[in-house]
């Protein structure tokens, strides 16, 4: 009888663990349903195979915080999915491939820049940006603040050993049960498995 009680207690405990994971997942799925979509096109007359950086950012008390960014190798359409907030969009042509804006690099904003006020579930389209010659307003904005684009893999095709930390059980669990945290931490990658 004691062994049956222990087995039952064990299964109840396991059920509770999964229940907590499902509650967190349910909360993250609710946040994902309220996500907004921002879409547009970047145009640039002089891209010359240089990266075009487009950043979605917030500004509060003159402090810029980059929410997300994309790197494009040619003028094209872009789409951001984000949490509801008030955003700006900016883009620049990265002439020296360093992911940092310099005053001689062509840049522009959506609008003058225009504040994008969003509501849960909203989709904003036609947010087009034309990158022009070095823009004095962009220079002033970028130089007045430290803008970090975070980690960006510059070496596609790098061979990663299977015992690398990004293949750990904790990272796998984060991707399964806490997908928003997984995405926000920029852990996700496209990885190809190669046999020797």
Give your account of this protein's structure:
Strands 2, 3, 5, 6 and 7 form a five-stranded antiparallel beta sheet that branches. Strands 1, 4, 8 and 9 form a four-stranded mixed beta sheet that branches. The protein has helices at residues 2-33, 136-143, 169-177, 179-184, and strands spanning 36-44, 52-60, 63-72, 77-82, 86-93, 107-109, 116-117, 123-124, 129-131. The chain is built from four helices and nine strands; from the N terminus they run H-E-E-E-E-E-E-E-E-E-H-H-H. It is 28% helix and 27% strand.
CATH superfamily of one domain: Carboxypeptidase-like, regulatory domain
Number of strands: 9
Please outline the major beta sheet: 5 strands, antiparallel
Cα-to-Cα separation, first versus last residue: 53 Å
CATH class of one domain: Mainly Beta
Q: In terms of per-residue confidence, which ranges show pLDDT below 50 for 5 or more consecutive residues? A: 150-155
Proportion of β residues? 25-35%
What is the string of helix and strand elements?
A: HEEEEEEEEEHHH
Query: What share of the residues lie within helices?
Result: 25-40%
User: What is the subunit arrangement here?
Assistant: single chain
Derived from helix and strand composition plus strand pairing, the structural class reads alpha+beta
| Average pLDDT level | 75
Our Rg estimate from Cα atoms comes to 22 Å
CATH domain fold name of one domain: Immunoglobulin-like
Q: Just name the CATH architecture of one domain.
A: Sandwich
Question: How does the overall form come out from the CA principal axes?
Answer: globular
Count of alpha/pi helices: 4
């Amino acid at each position: 009888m004691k062994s049956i009680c222990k087995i039952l207690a064990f299964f109840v405990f396991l059920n509770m663990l999964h229940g907590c994971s499902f509650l967190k997942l349910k909360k993250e799925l609710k946040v994902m349903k309220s996500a907004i979509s921002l879409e547009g096109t970047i145009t640039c007359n002089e891209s010359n195979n240089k990266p075009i950086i487009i950043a979605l950012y917030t500004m509060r008390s003159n402090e810029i915080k980059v929410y997300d960014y994309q790197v494009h190798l040619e003028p094209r359409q872009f789409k951001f999915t984000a949490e509801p907030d008030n955003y700006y969009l900016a883009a620049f042509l990265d002439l020296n491939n360093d992911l940092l804006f310099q005053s001689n690099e062509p840049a522009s904003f959506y609008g003058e820049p225009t504040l994008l006020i969003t509501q849960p579930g909203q989709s904003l389209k036609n947010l087009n940006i034309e990158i022009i010659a070095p823009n004095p307003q962009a220079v002033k904005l970028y130089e007045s603040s430290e803008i970090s684009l975070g980690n960006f893999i510059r070496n596609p095709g790098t061979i990663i050993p299977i015992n690398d930390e990004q293949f750990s059980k904790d990272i796998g669990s984060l991707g399964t049960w806490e997908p928003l945290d997984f995405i926000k931490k920029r852990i996700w990658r496209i990885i190809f498995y190669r046999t020797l």
